[in-house]
Fold this protein.
Amino acid sequence: MKCKEIPYNRVEKEAMEQTFSKLHKQFIAAKSGEEQWKVHLQYHAYLDDIMTMCTLAGIRHDGNVEDPFYKKEQAYYDALLPILEKYKIAYEKALYESPYRSFLEEKMGQVAFRNLELKQKAFHESLIPLMQEENELVTKYCQCIANAKIPFQGQIFNLSLLQKYLVHQNREIRKEAYQKQSDFFQSVAEELDEIYDRLVKNRTKQAEKLGYTTYIPLGYARMRRNCYDAEMVKRFREQVKREVVPIASKIQENRRRRLGLEKLYYFDSDLYFAEGNPAPIGDAMQILQAGEQMYHALSKETDTFFQFMKQHELFDVFGRKNKRAGGYMTTLANIHAPFIFANFNGTSADVDVITHECGHAFQAFLTREVAVAEYRDLTMEMAEVHSMSMEFFTEPWMELFFGERAEDYRRMHLESSILFLPYGCMVDEFQHLIYENPTSSKQERKNMWLDLEKQYRPDLDYAKDPFFSSGGYWQKQGHIYQSPFYYIDYVLAMVCALQWRNRMQSDYQSAWEAYIAFAKASASEFFTDLIEKVGLQSPFAEDAVHNLMHIIQEREKK
Ligand code: ZN
């Protein structure tokens, strides 16, 4: 069935409440592990039904925000979902406290129970008013960023439209674009400081109410850090500082020479080639077709995946009137299908959808028949391994997208991936410092950032830009406001993806098979265990980063 032909029926609130109450009662009344397990399967089947309708309404609304029917449905679910959440939390509590836990744990695995425990630890009803305020503050930050009106070259830009001028091959143009961006942030700096101050204090208060001394353990529980702690993350960052920062400096020096510049400034940060960064050669349609060709050639599994997506029309990627901006991957649980939403515009961001988002979707496709719903409950570092590794597995086909500049694309991809490691760690260390010292002043926070920049990005020169050189850069990084401690996930995932890149260079086929095994295992095991099981080093191993960078450097010499 094509996605657009799937019949839609609204989830009625009363029926939903009755069904959940009934399942909850049955679960508690069950007399054995087997009986509870049967109820649990029914619970997930029902949850899948609900979520499929909710997702359908969402993607149809996003596909045409002016459609009055789905506009109403979307508003309906916005109000229904918090109620659903209440039932889920109550049910999960019963599940966690089950007298037949050992039987259930056998069925669902340790990871699922550890996740349930973290969820219980991270929530209490008494936190709801603070959590509501937290959401409002995050929304305020997002609005402030989204509403940016930046005058540039006689027009008005928002931050995402300005993006392409930040990598413009004409240095004067990109310098001006950076200055305009800086002017915008300078104009809202005080407001952003204020929002952040309130967020940090709010989150700290939530943690104190639950008996923690700082927000860090609560933030970790909310990110479902089920197999590593802050101390391990700290040692990982130290590895990156020691092993990657010097190599990053060499990459910057090569880039400077390649660009033919006397010195690199902050406004040269994202440009890799004097003639401009590689851009796709075809239009949106051709990019999608190139994707099909690539996944056909890559493997049997990816070919089946892509044909499935095409047949069921699970790509809504072409821009059109009344379509919502942005992009994402989601799943329609009931028909076991991933769905990709995007707005192709003929830039390299479209290629990212085909490589990165399709990596997420491919994993969802591989695990679509998995009976234990909890196995699909991925933590973020794991999910990003699926997508970031796919970016490397698809590299041999970049000629289809970038023609003669495919090699430039691969160079840029490798260099930007390595340069990302210290940056990502810096974002993470900053947040640890912030939540360890929740009463710091606005200036102290900026000084912390400046101090970290000296350690992680020693070559960066802001050319005395008033906003960036006074420690304001982090206000651009939305994760710091929106999802505390969600960022190191990308760094951990990148260390794994780059290890796969090393492996595929010596034996593509065996690397691919290990990747498939990793993707299929999904969340059935802890991230750190699973990574080692498929033959990679856990990023937390003492010499993981050293070994990774050593192999990359040896290959670069050839
Ligand atoms: Zn992703």
